[in-house]
From TrEMBL:
Domain Small ribosomal subunit protein uS7, chain residue ranges per copy: 1-148
InterPro entries, sorted: Ribosomal_uS7, Ribosomal_uS7_bac/org-type, Ribosomal_uS7_CS, Ribosomal_uS7_dom, Ribosomal_uS7_dom_sf
Organism of origin: Litoribacter ruber
GO CC terms in record: small ribosomal subunit
UniProt keywords, alphabetically: Ribonucleoprotein, Ribosomal protein, RNA-binding, rRNA-binding, tRNA-binding
Protein name as it appears in the record: Small ribosomal subunit protein uS7
PROSITE patterns from the UniProt entry: RIBOSOMAL_S7 (PS00052)
Amino acid sequence: MRKAKPKKRYILPDPKFNDTLVTKFVNCLMVDGKKSIAYKIFYDAVAKVEDKTGENGLELWKKALNNITPAVEVKSRRVGGATFQVPMEVRPERKTSLGIKWMITYSRKRGEKTMMDRLAGEIMAASKGEGAAVKKKDDTHRMAEANKAFSHFRF
């Protein structure tokens, strides 16, 4: 390595729940630097989940995020001219970032009218262990399981 590793940036907790994970989520949800709008979408979605289910919205969101985060993934590795999909365990920071990205991506693809409704729907679906984001995680795990014969190529 030629240069020094960049310092880890620490993010401040959000104003309402005092949680850094919420801030990470809102930062990924934010479009064009409109952070206050992103916070409004997130808080409204959590409130809507609370109204519909009667449970704590933040806890349900954390449970949904937990259901989405992958444990293993496949990475391409070239060995002697052939490319193998090698299953590897996912680092903790990458786990959460993948879960957040998948939840937001599949929320945006849903059919409801506003982003708040879409996010609330995806949170409720993921907390039950269904929905597109959970399917993505299952597909990732299935792919790693199918290629576990190549796990000796780990680097």
